[in-house]
Amino acid sequence: MHQRAPDPSLPNTVLSKDIPINPSKGTGMRLFLPRCALDSPSSKKLPLVVYFHGGGFILCGPRNNLLHEFCLDIAGELPAVVASVGYRLAPEHRLPAAYDDAVEALHIIAASSEEWLVQYADLNTCYLIGSSAGANVAYHVGLRLAESHDSLAPLSIRGLILHQPFFGGTKRTESELREVNDPMLPVGVTDLMWELALSAGANQDHEYCNPTVNGGSKVLDKIRALGWRYLVTGCRGDPLVDRQKGGREGDGGGGKDGDINSVEDLLVGANGGGDTDLVKETATTEGGKEEMSEVVGKEGKGQKVQVGQHWADKEGNLAGEKKTA
């Protein structure tokens, strides 16, 4: 157990361990397993949640204290086996390094003999979740793997949850102009993050940054054909909220059949509360409640599912409670 010792008397105790992905790259993941799985080894296997952290592609990792605590909550509350994936950071490793590392991690998971994955995780029920830059990673990994889905067998992706995805573009949106000097994530900071993350000379209309260029990716049609769930959440008061709407609208309107939801339907908690509170509220609103429970494979109405994180600096110090990058 990392960060805090488990109390064996508590039924919701969550255990964790680190396993390598690619030692030559210095990448690894942290696995989280609810104690209930150990106590009931004959019970049904748990869904697998693969989580990608935020940090503007330049900060944080699975060992970050806040990210660790967040993944404990996911694993214990769903319950689920959680794999918090680390990826190489910019500017030393610019995009698509993070996407490459994330795809590699999923292939490692699919072929792993790790006991927690083999005995307790239902690889056929896998969800990709990301916050901010991690949501950008989940989005692009989803696009890649939708075209080669069979290569992951026996792992099968069932859905994507993009929480306040970190997107950009050369033309300022209304929300960016309105919140240009936001005290927690000013637009100048996001510009710098993209300058450090994208390849030298690329601008923010690069496909890694702007999902709406050229009408959006046609691979979203493949995602729908595969039956994946696709959920985008956002927050009023976030300078990037219009980008998050664009991340949905880049599908060319394909969300009308209900398998891709508009971020506008899930906006709650204007300018207040942490990301965890945001998603809790989302899970108790009509539409959001059903989607959150369905996407993560939970039965029943009103299940509160936490898929948010607090923004922290590289040392893990809390810097705010509304937005991630």
Would you write up a description of this structure?
This protein has a seven-stranded mixed beta sheet with strand order 1-2-4-3-5-6-7, sandwiched between helices. The protein has one domain: Rossmann fold (3-Layer(aba) Sandwich), CATH 3.40.50.1820. By secondary structure, the chain is α/β, with parallel strands linked by helices. Residues 250-293 and 297-324 have low confidence and may be disordered. The longest helix has 15 residues, at 97-111. The protein starts with 13 loop residues before the first strand and ends in a 30-residue tail after the last helix. The protein is 31% helix and 16% strand. It has helices at 35-39, 65-77, 97-111, 115-120, 133-146, 174-178, 187-197, 219-226, 241-249, 275-282, 288-295; strands at 14-22, 27-34, 46-52, 81-85, 121-131, 157-163, 229-233. It contains eleven helices and seven strands.
The neighbouring-strand order within the major sheet is: 1-2-4-3-5-6-7
Number of strands: 7
Q: Characterize the main sheet.
A: 7 strands, mixed
Structural class: alpha/beta
What proportion of the residues is helical, as a percent range? 25-40%
- What is the global morphology? globular
